[in-house]
Design goal:
The protein has 259 residues and is of the alpha+beta class. The chain has 6 helices and 10 strands, in the order E-E-H-E-H-E-E-E-H-E-H-E-E-H-H-E.
Length: 259
Amino acid sequence: MLDCAMQNLKLSHNPLIQYRPIRTSDLEVLQKIHGDLFPIRYESEFFQNVVNGRGIVSWGAVDRNRPNGQNDELIGFVTARTVLAKDSDIEDFLRYDSSRSEQTLVYILTLGVADSYRNLGIASSLIHEVIKYASNIPICRAVYLHVISYNNPAIYLYKKMYFQCVRRLPAFYFINGQHYDAYLFIYYVNGGRSPCSPLELVKLLVTCAKSGFKTVAAKLWTKEERKPSKWPKSKESGSLLPTKHNRRMSTEGAVSQFV
């Protein structure tokens, strides 16, 4: 898939963007971009799982017009994994058929684009790749992700792409000794849908907003604390503005930088 974008003022050439799977040869660059963009550091196991496709699917963006032999070097990426709907924390936002325990979801882990390639539509194209992937899995019902509450550009992007913002989660992230809220976004595929009507969903969101989501958040945290999982308790994804610090993230925990 090609995306011929307008020239970015930060670039000295006209980019020609192509999307491809992430490969083992991308490991070093993938680690560098994550380090440049995200406020946490990831353990090497996370990157090994990405480049080797162990439980994670991924797509990378490259600029075929990039000079100096860098025309196959990653300038953007998205990573995701498939989870069982019954084991997810969004089961209450699905019209879920308990008799079909095999139904799945796709969870976006990280999304990032190098600074000089922002505002070229690359992030949108990467998200489209995830949606297309999920849509081609007959038993998949939705794509979902978390976004930190202050990242207005990311929130705008997901709404523009018809993701539904269905919940605000207080103190969802803990970064640099500070708690941050997150929004939960869902994009339904293959006939997946909310368990309530659009009007009922709006009423639910208004009620939750007025109450500060305290009850919902308490139930969610209690449920998450009880649930055994090989994934870390630090949540997988969200769209964070880049800051630097030295905290390391366990294997699959992830936060993402949208561009």
